[in-house]
Specification:
Number of strands: 12
CATH superfamily of the largest domain: Rod shape-determining protein MreC, domain 2
Helix content: 25-40%
Structural class: alpha+beta
Shape: elongated
Distance between the termini: 108 Å
Strand content: 25-35%
Radius of gyration: 42 Å
Amino acid sequence: MPKRKWLIRISAVIIIGGILLSLAVATIEPRNNLTFVENGLRNAASPFQHGLSTLSSNIKSVFAIFGEAQKLHDENIILKQQIGELNNQINTLKEAELENIRLKEMLAYKQKAVEHYDLTVAAIIAENNNKLEHTIILDKGSNDGIASNMIVLNHQGLVGRITSVLSDSCEVVLVLDREGAVGARVWETRETPGVVEGMGSDKNILRMVHMPHDADICLGDIIVTSGLDGIYPEGIRIGEVVDISIEAGGLTKQATIEPYVNFSKLEEVFILTNVKVSSDMANGEQGGQ
């Protein structure tokens, strides 16, 4: 019996709610002349009408928020793509500008050195620059007249020498490598105090060794090739003295040399194919670059 009463009550609530909802819909349109009964029904249904209106408005607002969020999400993706494309364009323009500056500097150097050297431009196509080995591969070989022991340089200074040659490529051992040691001297004093060699590390740094303890060398001095090793012509810029120390025993000195060439940014180089006239390319103007 209690269960039956509960069902009757629920049914009554549903029926009354349906009637009120129907009345709310029926009286929602404004009319000037309402009967007493209609006016009472309207007043009774008014809370339900307000609730329906509020619920409808809230539902529309929720869907509008979701729609706006999706729109903003899509716009954000598009804007990120556009920013990425613009950054790529900026980087491309910067690279082109740097390449233009570098090639202009190399052209100016080649025009200045033409009386003394025959130079062939080559591009770096591979490199091996680590603690154990410092070499690069160039896109010129025997088909281009390239041979072993030819010197490689750029507008900044000495890069290294060619150690092996194929028909269309060649390998260069950099001056940073232990095998790339070169006879050198101080440009300011014209002395020939020692040998410049790599430090055997991944740092772009050199050292000059085997100098007499009384060698006239100072911080800031320009170090150039001496030409006495029979491989490198004289006067090619190597680097600048940044530190001087006395070796064990006190009989000799050694100096730390910062190379003029930025080996981490090498892209194009010159291969010195012929020396026309012996020349000191580390003159005052060159030394100041």
